[in-house]
Specification:
single chain, alpha/beta, nine-stranded mixed beta sheet, four-stranded antiparallel beta sheet, 13 strands, 18% helix, 33% strand
Length: 206
């Protein structure tokens, strides 16, 4: 099935990175304020979702879901759940990290939600690419300036990092002690990250 791309309303400066990451057959959902990115991204929505508190509701024939302003799910959370309901099994989220830390953290948590459904997902912003490492090992290319492993969901055990400046064998990272920050891939190699138990947030600094 097509990949679902969710576009939020956070600031985007490096639009070229976003355009280069899109596939021709991606299914695009613009969430409320994310509509401001249409001119620079250059792709029309397949679906629009929002309560339209940060962007005027467009007059369009494109399918639009209008949400109440008082609700439990943010526009972005609702959009992800709606795409899952429609059967999408791969996600890219852009414009979802920025000035509002509460929204940023909530959107990063969507990676955990999708991982719990065995759905691969990434967040791409101006500085980094984020994903969750759990059952499936992850690879980090040496084109990354740095990469970090953060625990945002409890305790992760059996962590192994190979082909990196700071390797690790059968390690453990807790939410209280984040020592997996700013690792580097060995030149000309591809780093591998394994997690036997739990989940980690992988942040690749591009």
């Amino acid at each position: 099935m097509q990949r679902c791309v969710i576009i939020g309303g956070a600031e985007i400066r490096r639009y070229q990175r976003i355009r280069e990451s899109l596939r021709k057959d991606d299914w695009l959902v613009y969430c409320d304020g994310g509509l401001k990115h249409i001119p620079e991204i250059g792709r029309e929505p397949n679906l629009i979702v929002g309560d339209f508190d940060s962007h005027e509701k467009p007059e369009t024939d494109i399918e639009t879901i209008v949400l109440p302003r008082e609700k439990d799910d943010t526009d972005t959370v609702y959009a992800v759940k709606e795409a899952v309901r429609r059967g999408y099994r791969e996600f890219l989220l852009v414009g979802v990290t920025g000035e509002r830390f509460d929204h940023t953290f909530g959107n990063i948590s969507l990676l955990l939600y999708l991982d719990s459904l065995d759905i691969p997902a990434r967040i791409l912003d101006d500085y980094s690419e984020m994903s969750v490492v759990s059952r499936v090992p992850a690879e980090v290319e040496d084109s990354c300036s740095y990469f970090s492993l953060l625990n945002i969901s409890g305790t992760a055990k059996g962590i192994s990092i190979r082909n990196a400046k700071y390797p690790l064998t059968d390690g453990e990272i807790t939410s209280e002690y984040q020592y997996g920050i700013s690792n580097e891939v060995l030149p000309g190699r591809t780093a591998q990250v394994y997690v036997r138990e739990g989940r980690l947030l992988l942040v690749k600094v591009i």
